Structure formats: structure tokens, C-alpha cells
Amino acid sequence: MFSEGKRPVNNGFVIHDREIVGAPPPPPDGEPVLTSRNAGPSGLEPVARPVRDPQPLLDRTIGEWGGHDDLWLFGYGSLIWRPDFDFTERRAARVHGWHRALKMWSRVNRGTVQHPGLVFGLLSGGSCQGMVFRVPAADGLETLGRLWLREMPTGVYDPRWLDCVTPGGRVRALAFTLSRRSPNFTGELSDARYRQIFQSAIGRYGTSIDYARQTLIELQRHAIHDRALARLVRLAEDELSALADCSAATGSLYMNGGQAAAPASGSEPAASDRSESDTFQEKP
Q1: Residue 156 near residue 120 (C-beta atoms within 8 A)
Q2: Does 47 fall in a domain?
Q3: What is the per-residue pLDDT for 8?
């Protein structure tokens, strides 16, 4: 499906992560999270530290693009629901050899040093459905500059030109991929760890679960199905629902003077909700 459109530019909306000076790597599953005793010097705000200089990556990307043809950009996460640049055409697209994964640490925008959050990265392996955006050649340089401020302030991503299959034919589009060697790559996370992150992580632009949920909603709006992401969102929502039920039961207990209400005669306890048992297994 093709769609034409223009989107307002809001360069102040930054989605992704910055490295933190003095912050040790996130603890493995089962280990305690950072506390104020080991999070860095007292009274100092975290300072962004580049993973690498992003300017040479921008220069290389501009050279590879050439500037003569329209610029195509592949979005697989927040770029789909908030591109922050003008475009003349948008198409559904699929790339092979890469997949979307909620496996990138965010210690500023969707979390903190003490409670890191998560954002998406495009990891090698599998395939990914997303959207491609067409930017006129005349606007390409400005758009790339804006994207670098938003996505590449610390050079954490590997910009790559990927072959994208669309209903209107193949296009070569720029995508921001994530290396498994990146300090922001989370590695494998257990369901328990995801629940912990979704419950506690909140950064300057909101929570990790809101970020994941908004992406899922927009993917579904474009008839893009991501079972792994849908499972993670259900996992978080089931946990939030259980916590809400527990809070409501506690409140009811206090309102009854500390005595639990007796069940109605003949009634049986409700069966607990269960999430799907299938899990996303990423191949190395």
C-alpha cells in the first residue's frame, strides 16, 4: 500500500539512548540493580559519552547516498509513529537478514542509570516488516542532519543501506542497525527481567512499556504483525493487571476492617489469567 503525506518536524523529540559516564553495565539476570551507592559521584548528573564519533558516519552515509536521487529511510520502531521529518511517500516494506528487537539499553530517554529502560534495535538475522519513507533529494541533507541529532548523538548505531521489498518494487533505504558488540546491546533477557524493566524504567520521554505499546499499536495499524513484541506487551500488561488486582484486594480488606469478605455460597475461585507460553528465540 502507498500513502502520501507530510509530517511536522520536531527535532527536540529524541528517542534513543546515550551512554552514561561512570555507569557500570547493567547487571545480569538475578543480580541487584544499581543503587545510589554505586551509581557514580554523588550530586553529579549523568553526562553523555559518545560510543564513537558520529560525524564520520554521517559523512560516509552522505557520500554513499550521493545527493542526486531521493532519499529512502527504513523505520522499524519509533520512526514509524513519529518520523519527525517531511516525506512525500510512505510504503510498507520488508528487509531480510535483520529483525526488530527490544534489546537496546536506554539510560536517559526511557530509563535511568539505576533503572535502565529499553528501546528497539535492528539486529542481524531473520526479517523485519516496517515502513520506508521517501524524502526529496533537495531535503535529504537536512533530514540526515536531523536524524543524526535524534538517532546518532553518540554513534551507537551502524547506519546501513538495506534492500527493502515494497508493493511498488525494491528500494535501497537507510536503516539504523545495532551490533551485538555494542555496549547498549542487552543480550538475552528473561521474562522476569522484562517485567522488572517495564515496572521500574522511566526516562525523560516516558516509560519503556509505553514506548513498546505505542510501537505495537502503530505496527498493527499498518497490518504489520510482530508476535515477539505482542508477547512482551502482553507480558507487561498481565503483570500490571495482577498488581492492580492485588492493590484492589488489599484496599477491600482494609475497608472491611481487616476481614476478608467471604465468598458467595456455591461460588468458585476464578481461574488465574495465563499468557501465551510461546517465546521468541533469537538465533545467534
Answers
A1: no
A2: yes
A3: 36
